[in-house]
Structures are given as C-alpha cells and as structure tokens.
C-alpha cells in the first residue's frame, strides 16, 4: 500500500472547505462536498482507501449516517463487499438494535438492522467508515453496536481527524483508528 505523502495530504485537505459558525457559532464545519464534486480528488481518495483495505479480511463496510454513507458505499463497491448503513434512531424500517451515546447536552442513538451482518461467517469482520472524527462519541457507539450485533469491528476509518478533540484516543480503546488526514 502506498502511504500518502505530505503533498498528497495537502492536496486532499485543500479540497475540504471550512465553513465557520455552522451549524452554530464557534464550530468550524468541515465541508466535504467540495472534495466530492472534484472527480480527480474523490478518485484519488478512493484509490488510497482501496489500496489500504483490499488485502484485509473484511466482510462488510458499515457507514455512519450520513456522510459515512458516501465514502463507505463507494469503498464497499471497490472492494466488492456489502454495505451496511448505521442510521440515526427511527430511520430504519425493519427490526433494529441500537446504541445510545452522550452528547454535550442529552443523548443520541444510532441503529442497525438486527440482521445487518448476517452471512455465512459466525463473526464477520466489519470496517467502520465516516467522514470525520471529532469527539469520537458517534464512532465509539457505532463500533460498540457492531460488536453488540455479533460482528467484529476491525478498524474505524475517517477522512479527517480533528486531533485536538482527542476522539481518536477514546475510540482506539474500542477499535483501531485510521484517518487519512489530521488537523491540529
Ligand atoms: P463526534 O461524535 O463528536 O466524533 O462527531 C462526529 C460526527 O459529527 C461525524 O459524523 C461528523 O460528520 C460530524 N461532525 C462533527 N464535527 C464536525 C465538523 N466540525 N465538521 C463537519 N462534521 C462534523
């Protein structure tokens, strides 16, 4: 697998737009739509992820609602694996299992279908994908949910890690963490 150079990372990082004060004052929103609409940049990213994971023993890709669906589904197609959406509570139509996680105020919940990882393996290997890790709360709940469903989360993969929030440290207690890009 080719590791990305400093120039490669700068190229990708430059495609992500910072939107200050969205969705509320003080937050700098990392807008990945500017990367997605650039065909060469999106393909460059997906080539890297495909190379990283193609030799790994992975049975499913699970993407977190909603931007994790974009990268997760694209990667699943590249690797010829099934894709499983991990959704916000109340969105999935069939029987679900859920995992609650704490927010700054209150809590949120994510869900998967009860049969999401059913296959011919007793404990299938799942790669978790999202666009960004901030506090790590969502991804930690997602990794816990994968394990709770009887599958195994082999790694959590992000395009971008907001390193100053140390979410990767919390998540790495549950599963290995990989991020293509980091911001301090
Ligand atoms: P967290 O649970 O704090 O790690 O938050 C991760 C989730 O929130 C991911 O699904 C991200 O898409 C989204 N998110 C959090 N912070 C940002 C941000 N600054 N810019 C864009 N998305 C964010």
Order of helix and strand elements from N to C terminus: HEEHHEHEEEEHEHE
Mean pLDDT: 97
Q: Order of strands in the sheet with the most strands?
A: 5-6-4-3-7-8-9
Radius of gyration: 16 Å
Strand-pairing-aware structural class: alpha/beta
Name the CATH architecture of the domain at 57-183: 3-Layer(aba) Sandwich
> Which regions have little confidence, pLDDT < 50, spanning 5+ residues?
none
| Strand segment tally | 9
Helix count from the secondary structure assignment = 6
As a percent range, the share of helical residues equals: 25-40%
Describe the main β-sheet briefly: 7 strands, mixed
Identify the CATH class of the domain at 57-183: Alpha Beta
How far do the termini sit from each other?
Answer: 25 Å
Bound small molecules, deduplicated: adenosine monophosphate
In short:
With 184 residues, the chain is an alpha/beta fold. The chain has helices at 6-13, 33-36, 39-53, 67-79, 137-148, 167-171, and strands at 17-20, 28-31, 60-64, 82-88, 96-102, 107-113, 125-133, 152-162, 177-183.
Report on this structure.
- With 184 residues, the protein is an alpha/beta fold.
- The protein has a domain at 57-183: Rossmann fold, CATH 3.40.50.2020.
- 31% of the residues lie in helices and 33% in strands.
- The strands form two sheets. It has a seven-stranded mixed sheet, sandwiched between helices. Strands 1-2 form a two-stranded antiparallel sheet.
- Strand 5 (96-102) and strand 6 (107-113) form a beta hairpin.
- Helix 3 (39-53) packs across helix 4 (67-79).
- The two termini are 25 Å apart.
- The model has no long low-confidence stretch (mean pLDDT 97).
- The site of adenosine monophosphate has 17 residues, from strand 2, strand 7 and helix 5.
- Adenosine monophosphate binds at residues 27-30, 64, 67, 130-139, 167.
